[in-house]
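Hi there,

I know you've been waiting on this one. I reran it after we fixed the sequence typo, so this is the corrected version. Both the input and the resulting structure follow.
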Amino acid sequence: MNETFELLIKDHPSKQLIINGSKMGRISSGRINTLKLDKNQFIEIMNNESINIKFIDWYENGFITDDIEKIRQLEIYKNGSIYIQSLSSMLPALYLEPKAKETILDMAAAPGGKTTLIAALTKDQAAITACEQNPIRFQKLKYNIEKQGVSNCYLIQKDARQLDDYFTFDSILLDAPCSGSGTLDLNRENKQFTKELVDKSIKVQHQLLSKAIKMLKKGQTMIYSTCSILNEENEEIVRKYLDLVDVVPIIPIKDEHLQVVESNIEGVLTIAPNQYYEGFFIAKLKKK
């Protein structure tokens, strides 16, 4: 096990659950891109190709499969009609509850999985702004936006912390850069996961969330999420801003495979890693 990871979760109330889950292999999952393909067409193609898929209960266009390599060979994958995405990664966009005609900001958007899901959920009728500062990741974001047929999205190659303060949005998704502690495979050595990475992530998370709250219209909601299970990157970040925002309670999805980690803030959701889900944190916040 990574020594840094073990040290950081040594007092976590769900320590053993997290450790056990971080040693499991993860099943593959994805979603139908409803901007290009409807569910009946997808089912017909899967049947014709004898590909095994199972739809998930909490999102009608999401599925799991043990035939992921077969799916990657299909034209509907190559042309962006389906998107391979982890189940946990779908949840922030779904909990955002985006609506047509809204102005929506995705602050750290690459590679575009959540951005394009927001577009699909709003039938490409929301005005989405997607930011990514890294040039290589920005090109990946641009590629996925175009591949999935999203037209109502304004891409900005810029650090979202540097956006002008006159920008305001009806809704914001901040899937913040993080240590990735919820995605670690403890069966493998991971030298990239360090205390320095966690500390750097925490600094950026504070700056991004502070900026998000400034740009969010009063009375409107945003999502703050990470693929981390560490309190330092999750609850402790949110707690600093509770004088500016209220926590909108999240009702966990109904799934027998979902395991929820104990949290010290009521209404947020921390998902334990396991065979089906990456470790993930989601908080829905309403600006006072």
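Quick highlight: The chain has ten helices and twelve strands.

Best,
R. S.
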